[in-house]
Amino acid sequence: MTALLDEARAGRGRSIVLRGEPGIGKTALLDHLAENAQGCTVVRAVGVEFESELALASLSELIGPLSPVLGELPAYYADVLTLLVPQKPADSARTPPASADRHAIYAATLALLTAAAARRPLLCLIDDAHWIDDASAAALLFTARRLLADSVLIVFATREVPPFEAPGIETLRLEGLSEQAGLELLARSGNVSPLAGARLAALTMGNPLALIELARVLTLESADSLSDLVEPLPTTKLLQRAFAASLVTMSDRQRQALLVCAAAGSADLEVVARALGALGLDLVALDEGTVSGLVQITGRTVTYRHPLIRSAVYSQAGPGERWKVHAALADACTSPKDADRRAWHLACATVGPDEQVAVALVETADRARRRGGIVAQATALERAAELTGAARPRAERMCAAATIWSAAGALDHSEALLDQAETLAGNDIAARIQVLGERAYHAVLRGRTGDVFDVLVAEAAGAGPQDRLAAGRILSLAMNAPLARWDVAATLEVCEKVMALTAPDGHPDPGFPKGAVRMALARVLAGQAAGAELARECVAVCERHVPNGACAELAEVLTYVEEYALARRMVERDVAGARAVGDIALLGYGLRRRAQLEIRLGRPLMAYSDALECAGIADAMAQPTTIAASRATLALVTAVLGRADDCAAHAEEALRLCPDDDLETGVRVRYALGLVALAGGRAADAVDELRRADAAMRAVVEPAVVPVAADLAEALVRTGRPAEARRVLDRLDAGVATTGRRGRRAAALRCRALLARGAAAGPLFAAALEAHDDVDEPLERARTLLCQGQWLRRSRRRKDASVPLAAALATFETADSALWAQQARHELTVLGLRTLPSAEHPGLGVLTPQEWRIAWAAAQGRTSREIAAEVLLSVRTVDYHLGNVYRKLGVSSRRALIRQLGGSAELPA
């Protein structure tokens, strides 16, 4: 273990989980590390069983001593952490934010620990990690996984049960002592015979604490004194038996005083003293416990020698005595900082419904929300619901708890609460609408939107007369079911009902612009000109709202109708807004749509950076449908870049996670696979994939949503099936005639030229290029130039062919579309023109995805600090990765990196 500490001192960040049964020596190892941490800052936190509902309690305990470092952090991170770290008078001018997204707290924790480590190596010790609150665990594990070039060592000590999941972090399991080592440990006590010692060592399986405690409380003059212990017992039971035995001789006053300490957790000694006083006791009642070594008073806290002593004390008490003690502790928690403790003590002291206690827990849940403690928030709301008497507010609180549990990833538990809430709601329409809204969201997450479609439509119809806006919001979620199947008629029907409820005048409702945005999408899919008009009208309304996804959703519609400048303005607003407040879900949503826009604009490298970040966010959120959508985007980006193997891998992952009825994601994946096959000269494979995508989209009139048709037609031409190609093009031409999409018109003309015979192709290629002039889609234009050059070469117009082929190659190389560039280069080679060997973009083949994101951000002119905030790493780790990037790419400066990656940053003079 000290070797890990040496590595941290040397600037190599490490983290490790010590696992083992109670008493195996985990705490002793942590103490040993702390004693040997010369020259390091040491911070500690201990999980407490009765405090696991207090959001970020353990993290606050750990980082409290690091408060002097807050001034070195970016202002937003420092502000976020003031929610956790008590401010000194000198810092009182800093105002904590009203709330903080949990992922912002994770990033701020990483920033604080690495900033502290820049001063002195940092050792973070977290004991009883299985009992730290979920929000603290998530923040610390987030940081632990990102340590690389920082002088930080994080050590978690945990039991196997209850579980403490720490995927991706090194684990060391501690085993019991050998029989000889156990006998040597017992020999130090001086009252254990060799025979009894051997028996005890076998019974405890070498657990050092069990050996010591049992030797202390049992009379072990011979092996006969252990006759009731006939086989090895679980260590927890052995220790609880030993600890319980030490309570037998205590007076009732002493036991009650110890029970107060057990129930108080890590509360301040002043709180304990007040609770003791309310029970007719005082701190003197703890003397016997301190003398026997069960508890110790250090400064302003009372701690147990071992957590199992606390458990033994609490379990030995009867329920009535526990209620009495919790009530006393609740009354003793008078400080505002102890409001959450007070609420939970009241909850533990309450048996039946109690609205005052329920309200206190709702307030606790709101404080947890503002601190990013999502599990603590859900737990408090659920308990509040249990203590609520009236059916409607109980249903509302139960549903609210279910909503938060679903956000925490506990969908099964959330749905169980929704079942209860729906039963409680009965015929109360408002309550039922709330429940059904959450069920609809679950259906989206699970990819089973069809399961709730009919119910949502029926319930919204019943609720409409009472609350039109609420009914419209719920009903708008129903569009996800037909949209996932590309059922345009049903999508349009739902959206028309939503507009009738929320915007009967046909204009975007300022309170719910998403209704109009979705109506615009439905109309665009149906090929109605009013769709584009409504989308443009939504711009100003969406911009008046705080970033909430409406702008990104609208950007997707604007992309389809070739309003690329407006689309960029919209999506940038949500992406920038999400970064400003640390809203990771909104950020992922926006990045995916921005990547799709960048593809249309011929900037796949920018799209690749966005898609990688989006995929990382989806993985962090751990929602399969979100991961599938992000992988589908990565598949398309890598298809355009010509990275066939990567495209196939991303597509496989997307299809694995994508529900069978989610045809929308399936179509995007098949399109990506078909596109990369066509670019790679595998026209037959392209036909197979593109046919499947095209068949699923027959109901979509708008040809620019997923532009499959032209690529399928080209693949059919190249496989010798002109009649089939013409049928596909006839449908494409009809869509273009209806919608007027200039880019799709150019692509259709290109394919008509491929079908033409002899000189008839020339005017068609010319018309296609003229159409390309009207829309900013450089890769599509380059593909037309490539096809024109191929036709000219086959027509033996070699000199004429070189011009469009060279222009196509230049565009493909600028965009790093490797497979298309390979085709253009091959044609020029056939013409006898010398070209440089084919090579993919520097970095794409040699850099890891993490390194690529950092290198690309640096090439756009971002500083290491800005990159660190974007990729959620420390500044030192960013610089470490940049060092690897320089080495792999053979450059020595950011100036050279900008040149090699073709970044947008201005080169220094």
Automatic annotation (TrEMBL):
Domain of life: Bacteria
InterPro entries linked to this entry: AAA_16, P-loop_NTPase, Sig_transdc_resp-reg_C-effctor, TPR-like_helical_dom_sf, Tscrpt_reg_LuxR_C, WH-like_DNA-bd_sf
Ranges for domain HTH luxR-type: 840-905
Signal peptide: none
Keyword Membrane: no
Protein keywords: ATP-binding, Nucleotide-binding
SUPFAM superfamilies in alphabetical order: C-terminal effector domain of the bipartite response regulators, P-loop containing nucleoside triphosphate hydrolases, TPR-like
Name of the protein: Transcriptional regulator
Organism (species): Streptomyces xanthochromogenes
